[in-house]
Write a structure and sequence with these properties.
Blueprint: H1 6-10, E1 20-21, E2 32-33, E3 51-56, H2 57-63, H3 68-71, E4 78-82, E5 88-92, E6 100-104, E7 130-134, E8 149-154, E9 166-174, E10 179-192, E11 195-208, E12 211-216, E13 227-230, E14 235-247, E15 251-265, E16 289-305, E17 311-329, E18 332-350, E19 357-372, E20 382-396, E21 400-415, E22 421-436, E23 440-451, H4 455-459, E24 461-464, E25 469-472, E26 480-491, E27 499-523, E28 530-551, E29 556-569, E30 582-590, E31 595-603, E32 619-632, E33 635-644, E34 668-676
Parallel strand pairs: 6-8, 25-28
Antiparallel strand pairs: 1-2, 3-7, 4-5, 7-8, 9-10, 9-34, 10-11, 11-14, 12-13, 14-15, 15-16, 16-17, 17-18, 18-19, 19-20, 20-21, 21-22, 22-23, 23-26, 24-25, 26-27, 27-28, 28-29, 29-30, 30-31, 31-32, 32-33, 33-34
Length: 677
């Protein structure tokens, strides 16, 4: 049974099914729900709908951090599987890795973040226009890797419409690591030879030292642990993008190229080898482990309308990523990961608002992925192919609507010198939504979704220095099948003088043949690392997300929220590395001169850590932000200050494999300026 603290029970008033956003930062302005279509049916900028959360505008600018999960940490149902300050991959309702699809403008990031917890994703929140967290039938559009949800980072790399010249520049400084980050963005366009050309350019520079922490990095081994600073947690990154589109009356076609370089450290204590014959453990790897990422990505995007035909809109999306990262041990390359990946999706829309609207599409993915080096734990080279066919559709009436999704996918993994593995996955999802007097809104979503096992789950066999584990795959793994029930309720009264809305969302997910990485408790003799083996067993996830929004006055607004997830394996054990129960409150305010917010989150102890995993203490986190809009010669300028972990708590995420040796940064302040023109 789910166990709730009294405060959590008091907050079970609403759901994180969607987050309202305003066209103004004024809390007194009535909030409008951000609608983004997870089917391409509604043709919004992102093409995505039914979100758990949407971040955009001032809210995104205030929350944007160096990693994606750190940016999303205040959203209900979302946690951070951090692996030090340089890595932050999102956890949605207790699921992450290969079950959460990370996308760059509706296409896979095509990086290596799903292979291991220490691999950073290549999205850049500081350059995003909008970040969406999605669930529901329409996520079948994106592949079986979206079985647990989708995080979609929307940008303007490839403009979709004509635009005038505009730009923005931002620079910020963070106190906990002397971190600096600067971004520049330019957009423009005009007529060229009678055709409309729209273009985009952006760039980012980021640099930081080791993070300050409140106490010992590893309080269980103070003799060998740093105090007050997290060693080898510094990072350096740069990125730039150039893109452009030809825009016509019926559509557009555009290209973009992005270059990313990222160099980040794995915190000290996460990569120690021990001599099993020694009386006391010794560190055989005194050199710090760093990960150096080089990526060049190419994107093509197009759209063409044929309004008088059965298939009235065609969309094409193709991405190619040449990705490489080196796991450095001092000056030596321990492991070299390479990934040459392609993904494409072609879809056609049909129908109109008076009848069934839908989209049918084809998707392909092919990558050459592997690792080389003395400590490579996956095959040196593998060819991974997948092809998918999907249909998603909706039918609307006056106060109700239905959405459906179906997908068939085939996957093959062909590693060097080993037998290829082939899997098929079939998924079906449906949702029913009903509104009573536009005040009471009910939803019910049912799905049966399948996911084929990934390369590392099948073929891993070796010591992984960066994560200090011996990863062992299992070629006997079968397709896992998720049966999910998601029920939601929202009350949005007509008279919104005080209570803006109340939301409640409950979910239950039974996953047959659930694949997870289990701590065996056995030590590999050669590396002296604990063996983590991929296993398969039925699992049950259940949880809730809540939210209530109160308009205290024209200038003050209070948001109350909470989330909880509990997951058990069929044999009675706990699914490892789940987030704890959380409740929180966010107070937003505005005066004539400035606006900001104060947010408090209480996270409970995680005393269901999984077999042979350590329990994690709870924490209280207090964050605040203050923003001053300033006129600047007819341009828009904003000075901002953000305080993070103001209580200087020792925060260790139960979802992180490094929770025992790498806490989150202590009390920190970030200050910066942003100018738009």
């Amino acid at each position: 049974m789910l166990r709730l603290t009294p405060l959590a029970a008091a907050l079970c008033l609403g759901s994180g099914l969607s987050v309202a956003a305003s066209d103004s930062h004024n809390p007194g302005h009535k909030l409008e729900e951000v609608i983004v279509s997870a089917s391409p049916i509604h043709g919004s900028h992102s093409d995505n709908a039914r979100p758990i959360a949407v971040l955009s505008g001032d809210e995104l600018r205030n929350q944007a951090s160096a990693t994606l999960a750190d940016t999303l940490q205040g959203q209900t149902g979302v946690s951070n599987a951090s692996f030090g300050p340089g890595v932050g991959n999102p956890v949605i309702r207790g699921q992450s890795g290969n079950r959460v699809k990370l996308m760059q403008d509706n296409l896979d990031t095509l990086d290596a973040s799903g292979t291991s917890a220490d691999h950073a994703n290549t999205t850049e929140p500081l350059l995003a226009d909008q970040i969406e967290i999605l669930r529901g039938p329409a996520t079948l559009r994106f592949g079986s890797g979206a079985i647990g949800g989708v995080v979609n980072v929307i940008d303007n790399r490839i403009p979709q419409q004509a635009q005038t010249f505009s730009g923005a520049v931002e620079s910020r400084y963070s106190s906990h690591n002397d971190g600096t980050a600067s971004v520049l963005r330019l957009d423009g366009g005009g007529d060229v030879g009678g055709q409309t050309l729209a273009w985009h350019a952006d760039g980012l520079l980021r640099d930081s030292n080791n993070s300050e922490i409140p106490g010992y990095a590893n309080p269980h081994d103070k003799e060998h642990s740093s105090y007050g600073v997290l060693e080898n947690s510094n990072s350096e990154a740069s990125a730039y993008t150039l893109g452009g589109s030809w825009v016509g009356e019926r559509g557009f076609i555009g290209l973009a190229v992005n270059r990313l370089d990222n160099d980040y450290g794995i915190p000290a204590g996460a990569h120690e080898h021990h001599d099993p014959n020694a009386v006391m453990p010794v560190d055989d790897h005194e050199d710090p482990v760093r990960i150096v990422v080089d990526q060049t990505r190419y994107d093509l995007k197009g759209e063409y309308a044929t309004p008088d035909r059965l298939l009235n809109l065609w969309r094409l999306r193709v991405g190619h990523n040449r990705y490489e990262h080196r796991e450095m041990e001092g000056a030596e390359v321990g492991t070299l990961f390479s990934n040459d990946a392609w993904e494409g999706r072609l879809e056609a829309l049909h129908g109109s608002e008076e009848q069934w609207q839908g989209a049918i599409g084809l998707q392909f993915n092919e990558r050459e992925y592997g690792a080389r080096g003395e400590e490579a734990f996956i095959p040196g080279n593998s060819r991974i192919r997948s092809q998918g066919l999907f249909w998603i559709g909706e039918r609307h009436w006056q106060h109700q609507w239905i959405e459906l999704g179906v997908r068939h996918e085939q996957q093959s993994i062909d590693p060097d010198d080993q037998r290829a593995e082939h899997h098929s996955a079939n998924s079906l999802s449906g949702g029913y939504h009903f509104s009573l007097s536009d005040v009471h809104n009910f939803s019910l979503q049912l799905s049966r979704a399948q996911r084929a096992p990934g390369l590392e789950e099948l073929f891993a066999d070796g010591a992984h220095v960066a994560s200090q584990t011996y990863d062992l795959g299992n070629r006997q793994l079968q397709v896992e099948t998720s049966h999910n029930i998601d029920a939601g309720y929202e009350w949005q009264p007509i008279d919104t003088s005080l209570l803006q809305h109340i939301k409640l969302n409950l979910f239950y997910n039974r996953i047959n043949d659930f694949i997870y990485q289990a701590n065996t408790g056995v030590t590999d003799i050669d590396s002296d690392f604990t063996i983590y083996e991929y296993r398969q067993e039925d699992a049950h996830f259940r949880g809730l997300e809540t939210e209530a929004l109160l308009q205290l006055s024209d200038r003050w607004q209070l948001r109350l929220f909470g989330d909880a997830v509990r997951a058990r394996l069929q044999d009675g054990g706990d699914v490892p590395r789940l987030p704890p129960y959380r409740v929180g409150a966010q107070l937003r305010f505005e005066t004539a001169l400035f606006f900001g917010d104060l947010q408090f989150i209480h996270a409970d102890d995680q005393d269901h850590p999984g077999v042979d995993e350590e329990a994690t203490d709870g924490y209280q986190r207090l964050d605040a932000s203050l923003n001053w809009p300033l006129p600047l010669g007819g341009q828009e300028a904003l000075l901002f200050v953000r305080g993070s972990n103001l209580l200087d708590e020792d925060i260790r995420h139960s979802t992180s494999q490094l929770r025992e040796v790498a806490p989150e940064p202590g009390r920190s302040f970030t200050a910066g300026v942003r100018v738009s023109f």
